[in-house]
Amino acid sequence: MSVSIPPPKCLKKPLTVPHRLMFGPGPSNVPARILQAGANPVIGHMHEETFEIMSDIKSGIQYMFQTRNIMTLAVSGTGHTAMECAIFNAVEAGESVLTAVNGIWGERAAEMITQPNLLRELPKLPNCPVVFFLAHGESSTGVLHPLDGIGELCHKYDCLFLVDSVASIGGVPLYMDEQGIDILYTGSQKVLNAPPGTAPISFSERACQKIFHRKTKPISFFLDLNWLANYWGCDGKPSRIYHHTGPVNAFYSLRESLAILAEESLENSWKRHEKVAEYFQAGLESMGLKLFVKERKARLPTVTTIVAPHGYNWKEITNYIMKTHNIEISGGLGPSIGLVLRVGLMGCNSSKTNVDKVLAALKDALKHCHKSKV
Amino acid sequence: MSVSIPPPKCLKKPLTVPHRLMFGPGPSNVPARILQAGANPVIGHMHEETFEIMSDIKSGIQYMFQTRNIMTLAVSGTGHTAMECAIFNAVEAGESVLTAVNGIWGERAAEMITQPNLLRELPKLPNCPVVFFLAHGESSTGVLHPLDGIGELCHKYDCLFLVDSVASIGGVPLYMDEQGIDILYTGSQKVLNAPPGTAPISFSERACQKIFHRKTKPISFFLDLNWLANYWGCDGKPSRIYHHTGPVNAFYSLRESLAILAEESLENSWKRHEKVAEYFQAGLESMGLKLFVKERKARLPTVTTIVAPHGYNWKEITNYIMKTHNIEISGGLGPSIGLVLRVGLMGCNSSKTNVDKVLAALKDALKHCHKSKV
To answer: Subunit structure, briefly (chains A, B) (predicted)?
Structure first.
């Protein structure tokens, strides 16, 4: 045998990556400090220094989530991996799950839950759900869903309260313990401003009780909480057993992003996101644009949905803004496709200066893009 | 409600990561060029430039794997994620899988396959396996398993040939197409010298035929090849639908590492690893140490297993070498725990200079570590 496929020519061209203002619903821009943290040398996924970094990450997540849960860690993957980690561990075949579908994330959770291996054993009569899923910040519709009281209600029926806070946490108040949330997760690439690839997650004592008393093993070995808990030093055992090779560089960046959040403080970050969102909404309205979410309190301060301007092709607007202003804003997703423009200003991107840039770009786009005469 | 968990003090300490010679079985050292590629600014996971980078990665993997498979991509996760991606897609509930257990990787594959949701529907009588799993380079035992002829045999019985080449590929000849391998995967952190977090994988036409004619959806949404194929532009469809947020920075590093391999060429990389391994083996034997794998041809050139020196505590040796020489070498894993020392010299780490460093460190350790009088 011999090498018959030659080295590809395309790899001879050096990698070039443009600088771009990332004002879509994520990933956000990553500050140089976080990028450089990620460029530190690789050490072992089982080295003491790595365990210390993981321990710092754990503390940072506990702060961000406002939780004392011991079972707090970061999954080696994106928000979807965390979503599967939550569902695969908390739900056994034959159990049912209730999902609030207020946008695409609820739809995706429903899709994951009804993958055939879970669904096919569901009894024909609905039984009491063991998990209730809710997206706190629905980045597809721009809706911020209230959380108060839901945890209590769930617990009354012996149901776990699972919250997706990928697009919201850090930018809006959330108190995992006080709000009775049993499983909470987010991604690294939104308010945290780290590169995509890690996903903080936390499990309450109540969730652990269910998970560690399962009758069957979870479907995924990679996402099995028994293993993850040991790797993250959450199970109280004296030694850690090799599970998978943690993405150490992604851990460096994640730690740095949590450090930045701790420096600013949650309260200041929440206030800043709120003020910037209000400033943005006022600017949009003064331009004659309409907000997709009518109720002020129900607006997600991190991702703003704007009703797609009448008579325009939304795709032409986002393309124009990318080409002319080097700014990413996006169209709808899932149920909001064609209906909205979405602008995400998260973490370090949430500033009045950036709002001014987006408003100027939008004004310019509305002037230059084709408008039908309807 | 109010913030009751204060910002953690540990995050006030700046991140410090030591430089270390990573001569264990992985992760390997990552050259500055690859680390800096990963520190490029974040762009969107659905931007044209990202798709181009992904296309370059695809070509690089096709070269590394020596395959023309269209269904070639990188999973957003580590080697274990790729392992689950292969199994979850290729195997349906009720089907059986044959696993060659020649070390820990075969054991892990067996564990994944027998997760209850697949196992509980297995008929009592064994049926013909639909997949045969083999670890090409068993990094736990240091064994390189021959591949020739196995693919043909599998295909005779309508069985897919699934090969784990995490620890071997790039360092030893492997021809996916010519050797009739149906599913092949590796990790980014071994011979490729990229940070851990991405896992190249490829599926033959035969594998795709089975996967895309499944009766049920795969267990994992995140690893569903229908979705991954679309995100990686492998399904011939004109547009890509949002699946998950690809770890773009990890893609940058992976592309750079594939470019470096293409620059050196596979043949030169194979030769270098072979020569360095021979030089290392000779050095070990001249020190009076014994190689764990007796048969010369069965030795993995990337990870060398040394019989744990008689009378010593292996852990004291690896600790001494780490502390005194700043070099990571490791003990056994799974079936080889307590029996061996493992030294990985992969990708840029595979050089005679590094062999000399390891040999000097080993000599020094045997002189200074405690030896019992047995």
So the answer is: Homodimer.
Q: Check B217 against A115: CB less than 8 A apart.
A: yes
**CB contact A188 to B (< 8 Å):** no
Query: Which is more confident, B352 or B114?
Result: B352
The maximal CA–CA distance of chain B, rounded, in angstroms, is: 71
- Predicted TM-score of the model (pTM): 0.96
pLDDT at A137 over 60: yes
> Once rounded to an integer, what is the mean pLDDT over residues A124-133?
78
**What was the pLDDT predicted at B107?**
86
pLDDT at position B116 over 60: no
Q: Give contacts of A78 with chain B, Cβ < 8 Å.
A: 76, 244-247
Q: Which residue has the tokens 């209906």?
A: A339
Nearest to A284 by CA among A358, A368, A364, A371: A358
d(CA A40, CA B10): 19
Q: How close is the nearest chain A Cα to the Cα of B281, in Å? A: 24
B10 interface with A at CB cutoff 8 Å: yes
B364 touching A (Cβ < 8 Å): no
How does pLDDT run across A7-19, given as a tens digit for each residue? 999 999 999 999 9
Does residue B10 sit within a domain?
A: no
Domain with A364 in it: 21-26+266-368
Q: Do A266 and B3 touch (CB under 8 A)?
A: yes
Domains: count for chain B? 2
Its ipTM equals 0.95
Amino acid at B31: P
- Domain with residue B348: its CATH number is 3.90.1150.10
Q: What is the pLDDT of residues B293-309, one digit of tens each?
A: 999 999 999 999 999 99
Which chain A residues are Cβ-neighbours of B121 within 8 angstroms?
none
- Encode pLDDT of A300-324 as tens digits: 999 999 999 999 999 999 999 999 9
Which residues between 144 and 163 in chain B have a beta carbon less than 8 angstroms from any beta carbon of chain A?
none
Interface check A221 vs B, CB under 8 A? yes
Do B91 and B131 form a contact (C-beta atoms < 8 A)?
Answer: yes
Contacts for B27 with CB less than 8 Å, ≥ 6 apart: A42, A44, A45, A245, A248, B189, B190, B195, B196
Same domain, A167 and A315: no
